[in-house]
Amino acid sequence: MIERAHPFYGSSRESNPSPSSGALTAVSGSPYAAGSSPAAIAADPAGKFVYVANVGSNNVSAYASDPASGTLSSVPGPPFSTGISPTSVTVDPSGKFVYAGFGGGISAYTIDTSTGALTPIAGSPFTGGAGIVIVDPSDRFLFSAGFNTNTLSAFTINSQSGALTAVSGSPFTAGVGKNPLGLAVDPSGHFLYLGNTADGTISAFSIEQVHGTPTPLAGSPFATGSDPRSLCVDPKGSFLFAGTFGDGKVSGYTIGAAGGLTPISGSPFAVGTGILGVAVDPSAKFLYVADNSPGSVRVLSLGANGVPTAITGSPFAAGSGTEAVVVTAKIQ
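^ thats the sequence. predicted structure below, dont judge the formating
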């Protein structure tokens, strides 16, 4: 049973939501200090640790999360160095490894499961990736989108060491001139989605289950709002949501059996001003949206048809320039 979920934002401010309403209440001690220009956030599957990629200071800040209160405490030691200007961070589904994407590749680390501290993996940083990173639910493949190179890179993950090996044929063309940013994989691990900021589309791929090779789906790319910078799929694999920075909207889609996208009735939905992060909570009841201006988190309840509706009290104030949101959960 999900007892409590904890959204954590790019501004290093944290709140507890009500399990029934999704409303947010600031956690004692929030906001928490991070590095310079924090831009991305990830949590381990158990919700024990939170990691923040700091673009300005070229490192990852690490925190331990109290399971009862959601309060954060810095992991002992200094922030963990990355490549230049890390723009994303992700934790693999096993909770063993952290990957931070930057312009020249991917920095990789093992997690000390008792403290949350990070140790660089042999061979790190790995070349071939660029910017945005995500690990598929099977924990076998890592994908990376390159904003400046307009490519999609794919890697296999060594389950013991966490080391990365480029998939044959990688990098793959992801739309020349489309400047991909957001990445999402559905819970089955069969479909990959990539947001193209330059032309307002979402590219969709099937993931070959043996080698991890991505193949474009029929009908791809799919139209969305202006400048989709963040994507998420709900835990049931029914819906995909795209936050579009340029128009402050969220585009919603139903995901077909073959991975194709069909706009939800009424999509795109006017939500905020500058949307830079979207996440669905583990119960699949609420959509949390990081609104960069003026710095808030917007909370929307999700109907059975995937239509998002703002809850009472939304938006909730967060730090200035809120860029990202992640939801962790305590499972009993």
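The longest strand covers residues 2-9.
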